């Protein structure tokens, strides 16, 4: 299934307290559980909080599912980018 990077503009998220981040995660997980119950293929892998942005890594059947999650959760999806390939330190090694 395709993997996406979602850029979310959320003012002051970088200074949010742990409780606020926990609540946001719980809200997102609730929407994802509801979508899964509806047989919609979408999964949150993890996110990075940086300044006034959150960069989320999701696996989803299509970008429309990400837009639906965004609408239902209330978290913006300002930019959604399909991941074409992944590289890591092992990529540098010869076959």
List keywords for this structure.
95 residues, single chain, alpha+beta, 33% helix
Which structural class should the secondary elements be placed in? alpha+beta
Distance between the termini: 26 Å
Order of helical and strand elements: EHEEHE
Looking across the biggest beta sheet, what order are the strands in? Answer: 2-3-1-4
Low-confidence stretches are none
> β content, as a range?
25-35%
Gyration radius over CA:
15 Å
Mean pLDDT: 96
Helical stretch tally = 2
**How many DSSP-defined strands?**
4
Helical fraction: 25-40%
Shape: globular
What does the main sheet amount to? 4 strands, antiparallel
Written overview of the protein:
There is one protein chain. The protein is α+β, with helices and mostly antiparallel strands and 95 residues long. The protein is built from 2 helices and 4 strands. The chain has helices at residues 18-37, 63-73; strands at residues 3-9, 42-50, 53-60, 79-82. Strands 2-3-1-4 form a 4-stranded antiparallel sheet. The protein starts with a strand and ends in a 13-residue tail after the last strand. The mean pLDDT is 96.
Question: What is the topology?
Answer:
Blueprint (H helix, E strand, L loop, with lengths): L2 E7 L8 H20 L4 E9 L2 E8 L2 H11 L5 E4 L13
Antiparallel strand pairs: 1-3, 1-4, 2-3
């Amino acid at each position: 299934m395709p993997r996406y990077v979602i850029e979310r503009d959320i003012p002051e998220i970088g200074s949010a307290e742990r409780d606020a981040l926990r609540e946001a995660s719980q809200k997102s997980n609730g929407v994802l559980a509801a979508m899964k119950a509806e047989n919609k293929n979408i999964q949150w892998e993890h996110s990075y909080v940086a300044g006034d942005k959150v960069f989320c890594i999701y696996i989803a059947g299509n970008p429309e599912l990400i837009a639906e999650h965004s609408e239902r959760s209330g978290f913006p999806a300002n930019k959604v980018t399909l991941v074409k390939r992944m590289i890591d330190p092992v990529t540098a090694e010869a076959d």
